[in-house]
């Protein structure tokens, strides 16, 4: 069994976007939990302010005044989205293990003890498997469907229903940080890096205000990102469709030529011509769309813009003497 050294730190990384009403309760809940499980003096909290516009900055300043030795706040220059905010947090965490969680009360800190126990047993990644969801029935169905489609399509095994909420060993965090890619689907990348992983069922609590900050568009983008980052199946499907279309068109061509040169019967087929033309037109556009999706991803990667820009770091050098915080 492994254990923490006397100077080891457990980092919690939590992004937040316009959660001003909850930050205080969130921090207090974490502090109480660490106290309860005996790590009151061995943890740090990295909060990433993902361009909040609701006055979270001032709220944080007052919270930091009470927990100056534990909390570091990374404020991004604008809203970059959950995945980018998570990367910013990971880059500024110094712990031997890092726990990634949301700051909206949906992830239960009561699981920390179990996460840590599994890490002690030798697991490098302990991830939450969502045992129950609080969303509406149609949304739950869409999540269920998404995870199954991803399972079917992905080249890497991405465990279904695995959420962002997880504990990761420093080796895993360093490996994730060394990956240059910008289109991030964290549960997928985490599975891709390997090491020893285990999922633990965790009930997902309700959101404190029932108003998700990641809208349907954000969730759709994430689902798209997951599929196109981990699968070439859309291209393969298109290739198969192309072969099928070619076979159909060759058959039609032979049929037409047979009647023109051998049977001598005219082929009067305006309707089938129209159908064929529009079918191939649609198929081409569909294919271009899929290729375009991969190309836009390549473009996004090669233009080399950073995943996020830091506006300011509060408390950068009080957390366990960590001084590697300048970007
Ligand atoms: N979040 C963020 N940036 C965003 C949207 C959300 O940092 O652009 C944070 C948000 O404050 C929350 C977490 O990411 O702590 C998850 O967001 P949300 O609850 O909206 O997503 P869901 O739980 O519905 O997937
Ligand atoms: Mg949430």
Order of helices and strands: EHEHEHEHEHEHHEHHHE
Q: Helix count?
A: 10
Q: What would you give as the CATH superfamily of the largest domain?
A: Spore Coat Polysaccharide Biosynthesis Protein SpsA, Chain A
Using the alpha-carbon principal axes, give the shape.
elongated
- Look at the helices and sheets and give the structural class: alpha/beta
CATH topology of the largest domain: Spore Coat Polysaccharide Biosynthesis Protein SpsA, Chain A
Counted beta strands: 8
Number of domains: 2
Bound molecules: uridine-5'-diphosphate, magnesium ion
Notes on the protein architecture:
The structure is a single chain. By secondary structure, this protein is α/β, with parallel strands linked by helices. It folds into 2 domains: 10-213 and 306-326, Spore Coat Polysaccharide Biosynthesis Protein SpsA, Chain A, CATH 3.90.550.10; 233-302. Helix content is 48%, strand content 16%. The protein contains 10 helices and 8 strands. It has helices at 23-37, 56-66, 82-91, 112-120, 137-153, 170-178, 186-193, 216-230, 233-263, 270-302, and strands spanning 10-16, 43-49, 71-76, 97-100, 125-132, 162-169, 197-203, 310-314. An 8-stranded mixed β-sheet has the order 7-5-6-4-1-2-3-8, with helices on both faces. α2 links the parallel β2 (43-49) and β3 (71-76). α5 packs parallel to α8 (216-230) and α9 runs antiparallel to α10 (270-302). The protein is elongated, with a radius of gyration of 25 Å. Magnesium ion binds at residues 102, 104, 106, 207, 212.
């Amino acid at each position: 069994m492994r254990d923490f050294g006397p100077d080891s730190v457990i980092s919690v990384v939590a992004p937040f976007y316009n959660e001003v009403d909850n930050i205080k309760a969130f921090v207090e809940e974490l502090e109480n939990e660490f106290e309860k499980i005996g790590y009151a003096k061995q943890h740090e909290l990295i909060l990433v302010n993902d361009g909040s516009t609701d006055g979270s900055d001032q709220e944080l300043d007052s919270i930091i005044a009470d927990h100056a030795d534990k909390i570091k706040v990374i404020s991004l220059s604008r809203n970059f989205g959950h995945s980018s905010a998570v990367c910013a947090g990971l880059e500024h965490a110094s712990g031997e293990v890092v726990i990634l969680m949301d700051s909206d009360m949906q992830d239960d800190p009561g699981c920390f003890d179990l996460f840590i126990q599994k890490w002690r047993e030798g697991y490098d990644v302990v991830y939450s498997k969502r045992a129950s969801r609080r969303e509406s029935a149609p949304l739950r169905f869409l999540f269920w469907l998404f995870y199954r489609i991803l399972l079917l399509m992905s080249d890497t095994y991405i465990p279904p229903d695995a959420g962002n909420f997880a504990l990761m060993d420093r080796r895993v965090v360093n490996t994730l940080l060394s990956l240059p890619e910008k289109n991030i689907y964290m549960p997928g990348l985490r599975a891709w890096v390997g090491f020893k992983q285990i999922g633990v069922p965790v009930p997902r609590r309700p959101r404190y205000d029932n108003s998700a900050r990641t809208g349907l568009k954000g969730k759709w983008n994430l689902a798209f990102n997951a599929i196109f980052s981990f699968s070439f199946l859309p291209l393969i499907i298109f290739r198969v469709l192309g072969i099928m279309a070619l076979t159909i068109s060759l058959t039609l061509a032979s049929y037409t030529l047979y009647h023109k040169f051998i049977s001598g019967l005219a082929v009067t087929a305006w309707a089938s011509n129209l159908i064929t033309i529009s079918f191939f037109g649609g198929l081409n556009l569909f294919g271009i769309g899929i290729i375009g999706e991969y190309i836009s991803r390549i473009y996004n990667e090669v233009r080399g813009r950073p995943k996020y820009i830091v506006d300011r770091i509060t408390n950068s050098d009080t957390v366990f003497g960590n001084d590697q915080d300048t970007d």
